[in-house]
Amino acid sequence: QPSLSRQVSCLGSVPQLRAGPIICSSKPSLGIRPTLLARGGAAGGGSDEGRFVTDEDERVAEELQEWLEDVFMEVDYEKALDAADLEEDPRFEQDEADAGSALDEFTYGEMDLAFFLAILRHLDPPPTASFLDIGSGRGQLCLAAARVRPWSACRGVELMPEVLHIGRGALEIADPSLLKTDAAALELLLGDMYAEETQALYTASDVVFVYATCLSSEDGKTLKRLSDALAASLRPGSRVVIVNKELDTSLPFTLTDTLIGPNPDSVNADARAFVYTFEGQ
Predict the structure, then answer these.
(1) Which of 133, 129, 171 is nearest to 152 (CA)?
(2) For residues 253-263, b (16+ Cβ closer than 10 Å) or e, as one string?
(3) Burial of residue 166, with CB atoms counted within 10 A of its CB: 0-12 exposed, 13-18 middle, 19 or more buried
(4) Quick check: helix, strand or coil at residue 104?
(5) HSE value, Cβ hemisphere, 13 Å, CA-based, for 74
(6) Which of 85, 145, 175, 201 lies 20 to 30 Å from 128 when distance is taken between CA atoms?
(7) Over the stretch 32-58, which tens digit does the pLDDT of each residue have?
(8) What is the β-pairing status of strands 239-243 and 253-261?
């Protein structure tokens, strides 16, 4: 019986930056489809007037995408999968009651890069801020964030060992002289976003980003379980950006902005990024 990571056969090829659904059930598999950089997402019905994602965002995103693809082209995928084989997989260490809902969330989607850059531009965090990407996958957004802005720390937490170790391989290859963040401050960690041991990451983060399109929720929009985990650990003043889902505002989260941009996972609907400030207990 091959290991989980060996069942992920197409990881031997170079993934594009926008992946199609990775649907994992009892026999996880990884399907990757290339998607061109989405363009022209805008507030105000997609018209040029009042656009949130600017031409400059798109220009920088295209340059970043080319750079990232070059980096991932150099990753030793066999080495990454070997390293993943040695990990204790958090997907299968959960209580039986949680296992079903966790498996439902093994669907992989990726954020539009230009929209992500526009969100960072809008937030304009200081160089002393720390960044965390929850469900960071191969770490593209962490690398992009470190390339365009200085951060005191730039971290990602990911549940799937296979993609995590591909991301770690990319961190080793990326030229640190091209980064605005110290390469030593870049880190990709294996973990469950709901687990108690992950809470310290939330406490240490000033900007938390979640591409939540594929995360499950009871009502289809509110991430109650993640809201509880964040509220238990964030520091007052921390900001959380949730794309295509919402936090539970019965907890001390204040919605400060709703930003609209391209949505690679839908041909009919824009993506919405909800920006919250945590007010503390």
Answers:
(1) 129
(2) beeeeebbbbb
(3) buried
(4) helix
(5) 12
(6) 175
(7) 222 223 333 333 334 444 579 999 999
(8) unpaired
